[in-house]
Amino acid sequence: MGLSRFDTVKHLIVRVEHDSDLITFITSLAKSNGIKAATFTAIGALKHAKIGFYDQEKHEFIEARLSAPQEIASCIGNISVKEGVPFVHAHAVLADQKGDVKAGHLLEGKVFAAEVHITEFAENKLVRKGDAVTGLSLWDL
Ligand code: ZN
């Protein structure tokens, strides 16, 4: 187990630009504001999305495209540093017109409208490092 204690430094409330990609938008926001350690939530709606399921044996994402509009019923994530630059990790629960949900690691999400709440931490020590056991880039705590 790795554990670090962080003090919250500020909250950022953001309305995401229409037609932007949610992951790219948050990544750019983190870069331009020097955010290197944070968590976030997002709600809103996507025009379409791509989610992933991590195959734990093959160590690769199995991707699924959701081409219909989706409600962002829930999206949580974090911002840390990978290879020297801010990296966004997000998971989402997305609901279609019938309320049927798909969920997973959010790879892409074309924004119709979205509201993001970022909680930035005072320390800039949240760094990712390759992990041979999982094949993932995990926090180096
Ligand atoms: Zn993930």
Give a nutshell description of this structure.
By secondary structure, this protein is mainly beta. The chain has 1 helix and 8 strands, in the order E-H-E-E-E-E-E-E-E.
Q: In this structure, how is the largest beta sheet organized? A: 6 strands, antiparallel
**Ligands (ions, cofactors included):** zinc ion
Determine the CATH topology: 60s Ribosomal Protein L30, Chain: A
State the low-pLDDT regions, or none.
none
Question: How big a fraction of the residues is strand?
Answer: over 45%
Helix content: under 10%
Q: What is the count of structural domains?
A: 1
Helix-strand sequence:
EHEEEEEEE
Give the tally of β-strands: 8
Question: Any idea what the CATH architecture is?
Answer: 2-Layer Sandwich
- End-to-end separation: 8 Å
Q: Determine the number of helices (DSSP H or I, runs of at least 4 residues).
A: 1
- Average pLDDT score: 96
CATH homologous superfamily, by name? Hypothetical protein, similar to alpha- acetolactate decarboxylase, domain 2
Instruction: Output the CATH class name.
Output: Alpha Beta
- Rg, rounded, reads 15 Å
